Amino acid sequence: MTINKAAVIGAGVMGAGIAAHLANAGLQVFLLDIVPKDSNNRNIIADTALQKLLKSRPPSLMHRRNAKQITTGNLEDNLSCLAQVDWIIEAIVEKADIKKSLYQQIETVRKTDAIVSSNTSTIPLAELTDAMPETFRQHFLITHFFNPPRYMRLLEIVSGEDTLPETVSSIEDFGDRRLGKGIVECKDTPGFIGNRIGIYWLQCAVLEAIELGLSVEQADAVMGGPIGFPKTGVFGLLDLIGIDLMPHIMSSMGALLPQNDDFHRINHVPDVIATMLEKGFTGRKAKTGFYRIRHVKGTKTKQAINLTSGEFHDAVRPKLDCVTAGKSGGLIALLEFEDTGGQFAWRVLSRTLNYAAHLVSEITDNIDAVDRAMKLGYNWEFGPFELIDQLGTEYLNQRLLDDGIKPATILRSAGAMYRTTGNSAQQKTLSGQYQPVVKKPGMMRLEDITENSRPVAENASASLWDIGDGVACFEFHTKMNALDLDILELLEQSISVVQNQFSALVIYNDGQNFSAGANLKFLVSAIKQQQWNTVENIIMRGQYVFKSLKYATIPVVAAPAGMALGGGCEIILHCDAIQAHAELYTGLVEVGVGLIPGWGGCKEMLYRWHTNKKRPQGPVPPIVQSFETISVAAVSGSAAEAQEKLFLRGGDEITMNRDRLLSDSKVKALALSQDYAPPEATEIKLPGPSGKATLDMGVDHFQKLGKVTPYDQVVANQLAYVLSGGDTDLTEALSEDDVLTLERDAFIALVQQDGTLARLEHMLNTGKPLRN
Fold this sequence. Notes:
Blueprint: E1 5-9, H1 13-24, E2 28-33, H2 44-55, E3 70-74, E4 87-90, H3 96-107, E5 115-118, H4 125-128, H5 134-138, E6 140-145, E7 154-159, H6 165-177, E8 182-185, H7 194-212, H8 216-222, H9 233-241, H10 245-256, H11 271-278, E9 291-296, E10 299-305, E11 312-314, H12 321-329, H13 331-336, H14 340-358, H15 367-378, H16 384-391, H17 393-402, H18 409-412, E12 418-421, E13 424-428, E14 434-436, H19 446-450, E15 457-458, E16 462-466, E17 471-476, H20 485-501, E18 504-507, H21 520-528, H22 532-550, E19 556-558, E20 562-565, H23 567-573, E21 577-581, E22 584-587, H24 601-610, H25 620-631, H26 639-644, E23 653-655, H27 661-673, H28 689-704, H29 710-723, H30 736-751, H31 754-766
Parallel strand pairs: 1-2, 1-4, 2-3, 4-5, 5-6, 7-8, 17-18, 18-19, 19-21, 20-22, 21-23
Antiparallel strand pairs: 6-7, 9-10, 10-11, 12-13, 13-14, 15-16, 16-17
Helix pairs in contact: 1-2, 7-14, 8-9, 14-16, 20-22, 21-31, 22-30, 24-25, 25-29, 28-29, 29-30
């Protein structure tokens, strides 16, 4: 079934967020709620929700224009609109009787083949539909989104005995391709997979931290990055989720789970949390939870609550020996360290992993589904069974037995949770046998290739891979994928190799971020030693390699996801095409460190705005548009916004599902390789001093408004000089090399300024820009 229109019933935080993401996928969406008593505006609940979506942080909409695709209404006046839609999502209060009454209303108006789903995570599907006709049950399922729906990739799907296979496949395909979700099929059990394990983990960590006398900062320092859990840690994550939600979810699960389930051992609300809830300390939404921010004399201070007294104190970043041991010795070293932090890590992790292992076959049919659910729904870097493999089943078994805890059945059989046979990844079953880890067609990560092959070329910072069908993939793998000289060297070498041996090149990596930009440490070192020739050579090198990329005899497709900043943005600007992940945050941010784009970023933005048919005519608008983008270090909040800022062009495309990005990029590269010819070199006419004067006037205006710092003006002056064409005039045509020379000269002039060095060092030390 094709899904073109949808409706969401329930305009709370979750319902509105789901509606927003359906709009992000290009659907027309109805957002409905009840009519409140004594209200002049009968749509007030849905209308208010839509206004909140426009102001939400982080943004729920990938572009503000997507709000126009959402039509608000109410269940009394607008129920008939459901007859137009293909998918109706119920996201109302978690009370079975209210939901069932709503389904009776829906059944009177829905199309016979319209799919209906509930966003519930606590009420069994069988209970929700027990009074509904068979035709309704055939088109009903549970679609459990995680909050916020735009950013959390997990979509748990539960089908009933009567649900038609085509109902499930339609939602799975739409959720995968159009919504960008990782689909996990769950059994109809309380909490499904994500919350069943996730709530247990969080509650277990809270209780153990209190019992061991750890501070919230210490607990979060252990139960976070060192294990591969979210950097927020458990208490920071609870603040984000909403502390008040925990008792409700636990109560629902506690009422439904069998009495022998270990969840009951931890199912109680600690006194400190009960007191916090009485005071309204529910987390970030209340601006006070386990953490809070206090503003004193213009200074922000982060405070944390004492788990014993309930009083707040200035938060400190703890230095724990167990964490240090874990960094050098791995996960087992962390768990075996004989301090309170090590005890805490072992108690929480061992019980959580064993609990997850006990649930195999009850909540889903395979361990891969459990791992994917926890990685996609709770942002774990490794799933429970991947963590078990890091420890080894024999080690985990023995330590559990030493603690008097019965290991789960799947842990007691020999062998790892996962293994690779030939090119096939396999997962362990409850019987101790292995079965394939199945991926849908078009799902491809570079790690799937690199595990079983050798690179065509490589050095310490980058690798070139053969990804099949005559397509090569260039991968950088430095910290934050920062660009350095090794990357430039291998990229130049790879261009030559690919032109001789392949049909096309894709630039991609599996990292969370495509590239955070150039490696600033090396640049700062050269500046401090006043090695200006070295700096100039770095800029010339990058300009040459990126220009070679642009004019290669094979098509080059960039596949960025996450951050593609500074030099990371410049590299994608020089590619023939971009296949971007929907969550692309790209921009030329060099002014934040007192520089201008020096690897062709200024040049490429000028050319893009110069050839943009929608811009006002004349020589000045292209430089004004380029200046406005670069001078404020504008970064797109999504791939849709990147299109608007011309970081993406008309032929570039967007992939919603991160796991399909590499495959989509490969398909695009192969399509371009048919009868490919590199672009022809072009020239550009720029206005020179008269254009710069226009830009200077704008900077002066903002300076008078107090929006520009003294050093902002220094950087803006150099940027304006480059974008206006230097000392040229409209009678002269500038080549790309001419503009690159202007970029290089301005860059060198800026690196010799104390203000630039101050900005660079501040960014390296704090991760934040200096406004000097």
